[in-house]
Amino acid sequence: MVEHVVMVGAGFSGAVIGRALADEGFKVTVLDARDHVAGNCHTARDADTGVMVHTYGPHIFHTDDTQVWDYVTGFSTFEPYKNRVKSTSQGQVFSLPINLHTINQFFGKTMRPQEARDFIAAQAEDIADPQTFEEQALAFVGRPLYEAFFKGYTEKQWGCSPRDLPASILKRLPVRFNYDDNYFFHAHQGMPSEGYTVLVERILDHPNIDVHLNTEFDPNKGHSYDHVFWSGALDGYFGYAKGRLGYRTLDFEEFHHEGDWQGCAVMNYGDPDVGHTRITEHKHFSPWESHEGSVLYRESARACGPEDIPYYPIRLVEEKALLADYVTSAEAERNVTFVGRLGTYRYLDMDVTIREALDCAQAFLAARKAGTPAPVFSKAPL
Ligand code: UDP
């Protein structure tokens, strides 16, 4: 008998797992509460200007995982795109990630790579095994650069001291002693030619998959699916019974302009007295297109309330304790797999989400073959 599975959420997790199971003959229903697929990666053309807007903030595809790259490029062509970010700090515009240009400009010098390396090494603090964001930054680049580029930005972004955040958040960013200003160091980088939503629609375009938008799923009401893949919030599945896991949400103040407003896609604001964290000018995410008008988002972060869209899982000490509680509840469930950023409460890039979704689908299929229980999580949250 053909099994019927449901994907709750039509982001990358639901789409990739759904597609893998559809390819194996499962009947797949995909539900999403929103009026579009692709979750927070959703892109849509602005009706006035024609600009492709990253509705929930900037998403740049970058990966070292060749299988994942082959997967996404199998569904859409990708345009070459290099993420080059600038930061306005203390009245000047600097290049990010911190590179030789940033260092020379910031300190008013003309150092060569090895000189800059020695110079920064002399400023960096001697911290053996950095645990927090602040320790990692001080060990990496020393106090002046930390304060100009990371401290204020991070306080605004996360709403807490960098002393309370894990070092892993900063490890996302490189420091370079040359003039390479590519934000990422991955082998593959690009933008889907027609945006992420078209890419996800194509993943979902399969005779065994049916998609229902504007459709909520209440896990506590009875249903007839053989298995549920839940990519909603882990605590949301349990009706927040033990309390809410903390997230940061984002506010986007949209404004329009004729021509080019800032000359780049992303401008960060490191100063603590500037309320926003960054401004994105969407047309620069599609440099192969040409538009007169421009759509911009002034972005700021705050604590996520019950009615807000959750973006970044905070994962401070209190959240970890609550998370452990929810993990125990999840492990007691039958016929549910919790997947993706919200389902596993982790800060995930798109490529990692896809990797885990591909692996999760394989693990599920293997379990079905062996007659063993399905995986509880696409990847353990703790
Ligand atoms: N960050 C910072 N200053 C910057 C850019 C990033 O302090 O100008 C820190 C900040 O804490 C942020 C983290 O580095 O959350 C990761 O940055 P990334 O650009 O990867 O964040 P995302 O685009 O995912 O929000």
Give a short summary of the structure.
With 382 residues, the chain is an alpha/beta fold. Helix content is 31%, strand content 21%.
Helices and strands, in N-to-C order?
Answer: EHEEEEHEEEHHHHEHEEHEEEEEHEHH
Helix residue percentage: 25-40%
Structural class: alpha/beta
Write down the CATH class of one domain.
Answer: Alpha Beta
> CATH superfamily membership of one domain, which one?
NAD(P)-binding Rossmann-like Domain
User: On the 0-100 scale, what is the average pLDDT?
Assistant: 97
Which architecture of one domain would the CATH scheme give at its second level?
A: 3-Layer(aba) Sandwich
* Rg (CA only): 22 Å
Assembly status: single chain
> Looking at the structure, what is the overall shape?
globular
Percent strand? 15-25%
Q: Using DSSP, what is the number of strands?
A: 17
Helix-strand layout with pairing:
Blueprint: E1 4-8, H1 12-23, E2 27-31, E3 43-45, E4 52-54, E5 61-63, H2 66-73, E6 78-80, E7 85-89, E8 92-95, H3 100-107, H4 113-123, H5 133-141, H6 143-158, E9 188-192, H7 196-203, E10 209-212, E11 227-230, H8 234-237, E12 247-258, E13 266-269, E14 278-281, E15 293-303, E16 312-313, H9 317-332, E17 336-338, H10 340-344, H11 350-370
Parallel strand pairs: 1-2, 1-11, 2-10, 7-13, 11-17
Antiparallel strand pairs: 3-4, 5-9, 6-9, 7-8, 12-15, 12-16, 13-14, 14-15
The structure holds uridine-5'-diphosphate.
The site of uridine-5'-diphosphate has 13 residues, from α6.
